[in-house]
UniProtKB/TrEMBL annotation:
Biological processes annotated in GO: nucleobase-containing small molecule metabolic process; pyrimidine-containing compound metabolic process
SUPFAM superfamilies hit by this protein: Cytidine deaminase-like
Species for this entry: Pseudomonas endophytica
Cofactor: Zn(2+)
Keywords: Hydrolase, Metal-binding, Zinc
The organism's taxonomic lineage, starting at the top: Bacteria, Pseudomonadati, Pseudomonadota, Gammaproteobacteria, Pseudomonadales
Identification of the protein by name: Cytidine deaminase
Catalyzed reactions per annotation: 2'-deoxycytidine + H2O + H(+) = 2'-deoxyuridine + NH4(+); cytidine + H2O + H(+) = uridine + NH4(+)
InterPro entries assigned to the protein according to its UniProt record, in alphabetical order: APOBEC/CMP_deaminase_Zn-bd, CMP_dCMP_dom, Cyt/Deoxycyt_deaminase, Cyt_deam_tetra, Cytidine_deaminase-like
Length: 138
């Protein structure tokens, strides 16, 4: 996969943050930690991790945790520069449908999302539009 120099720099900056976020995951039921690192318009990085509940529907994914934290801290929807999602127990990760729907509302359609598992060479770059074409919008 070929990234621009700027995209590669963003990827390299976000990856260790997402790895650190995955180490904070609360996943006693699945043992499937996921971390996300969100780059804000002012170049802050906001981490998110999955937080499980025995009633799985109440679980929150890393992507939504990062986005919700950013919004709670006063960052504007649509202002984010990039997100990286990391899961150490699979070769490659991809956001779930619920996260994709939230991401399309809070991130620009052209915002990059880097997805990576324990095989960094198998990472995948997406845009929000590619993750959820034909998304529900209001």
């Amino acid at each position: 996969m070929s990234r621009t120099a700027n995209a590669q720099a963003v990827y390299e900056r976000l990856l260790p943050e997402a790895i650190a976020a995955s180490q904070a995951a609360w996943c006693p039921h699945s043992d499937f930690p996921v971390g996300a690192a969100l780059l804000t318009a002012d170049d802050q990085i906001i981490r998110g991790c999955n937080v499980e509940n025995v009633s799985y529907g109440l679980t929150n994914c890393a992507e939504r945790s990062a986005l919700f934290s950013a919004i709670a801290q006063g960052h504007a929807a649509g202002s984010f520069k990039a997100m990286l999602v990391y899961a150490p127990k699979v070769p490659l990760i991809s956001p779930c449908g619920a996260c994709r729907q939230v991401m399309q509302e809070l991130m620009r359609a052209d915002c990059p999302v880097y997805c990576v598992g324990h095989q960094a060479s198998a990472s995948r770059d997406w845009t929000i539009e590619q993750l959820l074409p034909g998304a529900f919008r209001f």
